[in-house]
Amino acid sequence: MRAFIETAAQALLEESSSDEAKTSVAFEAVIDVHSWLQSLEVGDAPAGLALDRVFFSMPLLTLTQCANYLNFLETAGVSHESVVKNSATALGHSQGVVSAVIFSTAKTAQEFVEIGVSVLRYMFWQGLRAQETYQLLLTQYKQDGKNIENAGPMLAV
């Protein structure tokens, strides 16, 4: 699990540090999971960041779900291969579908890590683009005088 988190954290750092990400109107901060894990207390969020924003939440939810699954494997003393072999299906609700796809696609533990990190990179970009779209729609709705009181970026996904 730790190796997955380290690899995933590095992937998010690379993607969010790219010039393309930094020039986005939705860019808020580099996603430095490793630094956050080293410097923050449990339950704390990095100062000034709204982690519920889709820019952060899409990749971080995927990371958390995959890490929780790997922790389950370690705690239960079972392998990914044996769980897959004894499973008929994988289910997920909302963004949990993404983790279910990773689970069901990976035939080995190594594939789970590789596919998980690859999908995590994708989720970063999907979150960034969804945030961009939301901000554009929000501006347009305000200009049109539409009521946007309960609007949220997840609706743009």
From TrEMBL:
UniProt-listed InterPro entries: Ac_transferase_dom_sf (IPR001227), Fungal_FAS (IPR050830), SAT (IPR032088)
* UniProt entry keywords in alphabetical sequence: Transferase
Where the record annotates domain Starter acyltransferase (SAT), the positions are 2-138
- Gene Ontology MF terms in the entry: transferase activity
Q: PANTHER family under this entry?
A: FATTY ACID SYNTHASE SUBUNIT BETA, MALONYL COA-ACYL CARRIER PROTEIN TRANSACYLASE
What name has this protein been given in UniProt?
Starter acyltransferase (SAT) domain-containing protein
| Source species of the chain | Phytophthora cactorum
